[in-house]
Write a structure and sequence with these properties.
The chain has 130 residues and is mainly beta. It has a single domain, classed as Lipocalin, CATH 2.40.128. It contains one helix and eight strands; from the N terminus they run αββββββββ. The protein has an eight-stranded antiparallel β-barrel with strand order 1-2-3-4-5-6-7-8. Strand 3 and strand 4 form a beta hairpin. It is globular. 14% of the residues are buried.
Length: 130
C-alpha cells in the first residue's frame, strides 16, 4: 500500500521540482540591463535545441533598444531597428515593432555575470553582455 502512495505522489514531486528549476529573476529597473548585449541563440525551450543568431542589442538608459541584426546571405547585410523598452513589475517590456504601441513582456529566467536568458512570448533568448 505504501508503494502505491509513493507512486501516486511521484508526478507531483517531479512537477514541483521542475517548476522551481527556472525561477525568474526580478529586474528592479533598467540599470540591470543597460549596455550592449550579443544575442547568441534562440530556442522554443530553455533546454531545447538552440538556433544560432547573429544580432546585437543595446539597451540605452533613455528607454531605447537598438537591435542590429546581421544577415550574411541577405541583400542588406545589416539591419538596425530602434524600439522602446521599459522595466515594469520586474519584467522587460519591449515594443514589438517601431511605430506600434504594442509591447511584448519578457521575463529574465537567468542572469549570471555576463549571461542572461529571456523568456518572451514564444521564444527563449540567450544574451551575453559585451
Amino acid at each position: 500500500m505504501r508503494m502505491r502512495n509513493c507512486i501516486k505522489f511521484l508526478p507531483l514531486i517531479v512537477l514541483c521540482y521542475t517548476s522551481t528549476a527556472h525561477a525568474d529573476v526580478t529586474l528592479k529597473d533598467n540599470s540591470d540591463i543597460v549596455g550592449k548585449w550579443t544575442l547568441t541563440a534562440e530556442s522554443l525551450k530553455i533546454d531545447g535545441g538552440k538556433k544560432s543568431v547573429n544580432s546585437s542589442w543595446e539597451f540605452k538608459s533613455d528607454g531605447t533598444l537598438i537591435s542590429i541584426a546581421t544577415d550574411s546571405l541577405g541583400r542588406t547585410k545589416e539591419m538596425t531597428v530602434a524600439v522602446k523598452y521599459l522595466v515594469e513589475d520586474g519584467l522587460l517590456k519591449k515594443q514589438v515593432s517601431p511605430g506600434r504601441e504594442k509591447f511584448e513582456s519578457c521575463s529574465v529566467v537567468q542572469k549570471e555575470a555576463s549571461d542572461m536568458i529571456l523568456r518572451c512570448t514564444n521564444l527563449f533568448l540567450f544574451l551575453t553582455k559585451k
